[in-house]
């Protein structure tokens, strides 16, 4: 998983493709039934990438105040696991590919908040119909994974800023778009800091 996520960081990809590939990689690694990547949008979370969930679920917004599981996940930096018999309603009821339209039975649920540039960006959630799928080791791996995913999110943000600069340069005859492109992707302080953090994450234990 780590190698796949890191490889995508050095590859130019559309933001939506990069995040979807990351979610697919995470689902394959944890061998779980569903993975959701959600971005914070005012008082809501919006699903921007998913695996094991129907495509029509993408773009769905859920109000955080109406979903205590999401509120709990966002309230802390460490992964949050919900007991299989938790009475808190599951926001994915009726959405898993294998159980469309039906409430989820007793299952394992694990989630973590995601940060980019030191600010809360959103959340990652994992669901598995096998009780006990997310043990202590899975929670440690998710904590590590969240750092790599945060790096992927930051790369996506930097690439978007770079595109905006290039568009601005193309409308300004006096601007050097090529220089702006080089600065963002090669020698700018944000990129150098990101590369340093990625090296630290890659060298750490899973």
Terminal residue distance: 11 Å
- Placed side by side, the strands forming the largest sheet appear as 3-2-1-6-5-4
Structural class comes to alpha+beta
Radius of gyration (Å):
18 Å
Q: Tally of extended strands?
A: 6
Tell me about the biggest sheet?
A: 6 strands, antiparallel
Count every helix, treating DSSP H or I runs of 4 or more residues as helices: 6
Q: Would you kindly provide a brief summary of this structure?
A:
With 206 residues, this protein is of the alpha+beta class. It has helices at 2-9, 15-30, 68-74, 136-171, 177-187, 189-203, and strands spanning 34-41, 44-51, 61-63, 80-82, 108-116, 119-128.
Identify the notable features of this structure and list them briefly.
6 helices; 20% strand
How would you describe this structure to a colleague?
The model is unreliable at 175-188 (pLDDT under 50). Helix content is 45%, strand content 20%. The protein has six helices and six strands, in the order H-H-E-E-E-H-E-E-E-H-H-H. The chain has a six-stranded antiparallel β-sheet with strand order 3-2-1-6-5-4, sandwiched between helices. Strand 1 and strand 2 form a beta hairpin. With 206 residues, the chain is α+β, with helices and mostly antiparallel strands. The longest helix is centred in the C-terminal third of the chain and has 36 residues, at 136-171.
